[in-house]
Design goal:
- There is one protein chain.
- By secondary structure, the chain is of the alpha/beta class.
- A hairpin with a 2-residue loop joins strand 5 and strand 6.
- It has 2 domains: 236 residues, TIM Barrel (Alpha-Beta Barrel); 67 residues, no CATH class.
Length: 329
């Protein structure tokens, strides 16, 4: 099983990707969510310039945010900068659309987008919204066609899994592995969160809480959006979390949902027990055991997202726990 990393795309992400390369991570995925993070293609270009080995790519692109020709052109230039290192993941949009006040896309629209994107990268004439398209860039304007780039589909439910099986080179998932449908895919990337505890450190230490707070907030957000009030109320501190969110005007809740945190009475140890949001939290030995369980479940690429105030520390600690081999400069 490969060990990769993911980042909430920021101005300093290229430095973190460069560190990840030196620590032995296989790939670095960068989020696209323009209301929450900075531009994914601009930062990926900088990552390409500052690294030589590590795979890079957007994870995940939200089709409604960019015309397929725009993404095809960006992919072509990134492949030109980092040949053989680029992979792309496409999804229906979670924060990328919800933070704009829009619901995730219909999976049929995602499937149509992936088909169009593949045709463009192959150098074929594609059709999009009634218009016929072809990449017409001359030599020197990105990698020449055909461009063979793996495209993963980010999905957890049955409709998304069907699109991944039909059109994707693999699956990019957030929910814990377990679907029989996903077993047919040879590339199964699994996003995970957590922090490796220092010797003698408690799971509720300020450092540990700071490292997983963002993942915990994201979990509450996902449960609320996908499963509703009853489900989020069953989480530790869920009723108070929902009350704070729903005190905002209905038309503005999407502007605050990423900022509302579980109350201070909710201990991290309870979050770990009650959800998979920060499931890769524990001692180095415990995290190593969890990594092995993902491999046994059929995951082929474990994608760890470091978070908190010390990204470098999180990357290094997880690399050690996962048994990665440091790369010589």
């Amino acid at each position: 099983m490969e060990i990769s990393c993911a980042f909430a795309t920021a101005s300093n992400t290229p430095a973190h990707v460069r560190l990840a390369e030196s620590l032995g991570y296989e790939r670095a995925w960068l989020y696209e969510s323009p209301a929450v993070v900075t531009d994914v293609w601009m930062v990926l270009s900088r990552c390409a310039e500052q690294t030589t080995r590590i795979g890079i790519g957007p994870g995940v692109l939200v089709p409604s945010l960019r015309h397929p020709m725009v993404n095809a052109s960006a992919i072509a230039e990134l492949v030109n900068q980092a040949p053989g290192r680029v992979a792309v993941a496409v999804g229906a949009g979670f924060t990328g659309r919800l933070a704009l006040g829009e619901r995730p896309m219909r999976w049929q629209h995602v499937a149509d987008y992936v088909r169009c994107l593949r045709a463009l990268l192959a150098g074929e004439t594609a059709e999009w919204q009634g218009a016929r398209l072809r990449m017409m860039q001359l030599l020197g304007f990105g990698a020449p066609r055909p461009i063979d780039v793996p495209i993963l589909v980010a999905a957890d439910g049955p409709k998304g899994l069907a699109v991944a099986t039909e059109l994707g080179d693999g699956l990019f998932s957030v929910a814990p592995p377990g679907s029989a449908a996903a077993a047919d895919l040879s590339w199964r990337a699994q996003l995970c969160f957590g922090t490796v505890l220092d010797d003698g450190e408690e799971v509720t230490s300020p450092r540990a809480v700071g490292a997983v707070a963002a993942a915990a907030v994201l979990h509450y957000h996902a449960v609320y959006e996908r499963l509703g009030a009853v489900a989020v109320d069953a989480l530790p501190g869920g009723p108070s979390w929902r009350a704070e969110l729903e005190a905002r005007p209905r038309g503005e809740r999407h502007l605050a949902i990423h900022l509302v945190e579980p109350g201070p009475q909710v201990g991290l140890d309870r979050l770990v027990r009650c959800s998979g949001a920060v499931g890769l939290t524990g001692t180095a030995a415990q995290v190593a055991d969890e990594v092995a369980r993902y491999a046994a479940a059929g995951v082929t690429e474990l994608v760890y997202q470091p978070a908190g105030p010390d990204i470098e520390r999180e990357l290094d600690a997880f690399a050690r726990a996962a048994g990665l081999t440091r790369q010589l400069p």
